[in-house]
Amino acid sequence: MKRALCPGTFDPVTSGHLDIIVRAASIFDEVVVGVALSPDKGGGPLFSAEERVGFITEAVSHLPNVIVRPFDTLLVDFAQKMEARVIIKGLRAVTDFEHEFQMAQLNYRLDENIETMFIMSIPEFAYLSSSAVKEIARHGGSVRGLVPDAVCEALAARLKQSR
């Protein structure tokens, strides 16, 4: 069985993330979506790991070959645990490539049996990031269509609480 790992913080999951997951699911027998529990991004996540896992699980419920799991280890260690030999990374722009290329090289250094595969974002989502979604929502803009409906509602409620 060909199993791939699609890791990320997904804070929150976006339509761009979901597009990459759906496309990976059409290529591999099984895709594990790995939700990083303690990201190195400043300030910590807006949504808890449980919330993020829940949002993604709901959004991919129509894909029988996709499972969602949290992780709090080195990515290659999690890939080994999940028996995934391929790490899937979505790329929006050249700046993404530079960072992801370095990470792929480091992961290869840690385990040369695990490959990294890049899937290019479709033009519709090339600008989309979780940070942009949060910024739009913080300033009262609509994020409908940029995130699943459940995330849209939870984001509005969470930001209303923090005001």
Beta-strand share of residues: 15-25%
How far apart are the first and last residues' alpha carbons, in Å? 48 Å
Q: Provide the structure class.
A: alpha/beta
Main pleated-sheet profile: 5 strands, parallel
Number of beta strands:
5
Q: Give Rg in angstroms.
A: 15 Å
Number of domains: 1
Number of helices: 6
At CATH's second level, what is the architecture? 3-Layer(aba) Sandwich
Provide the helix percentage: 40-55%
Explain what this protein looks like in three dimensions:
The protein is of the alpha/beta class and 163 residues long. The chain has one domain (3-126): Rossmann fold, CATH 3.40.50. Helix content is 43%, strand content 19%. The chain has six helices and five strands. The chain has helices spanning 15-27, 49-59, 75-81, 94-110, 130-138, 149-161, and strands spanning 3-8, 30-36, 66-71, 86-91, 115-120. Strands 3-2-1-4-5 form a five-stranded parallel sheet, sandwiched between helices. The longest helix has 17 residues, at 94-110. It is globular. The N and C termini lie far apart (48 Å). The mean pLDDT is 94.
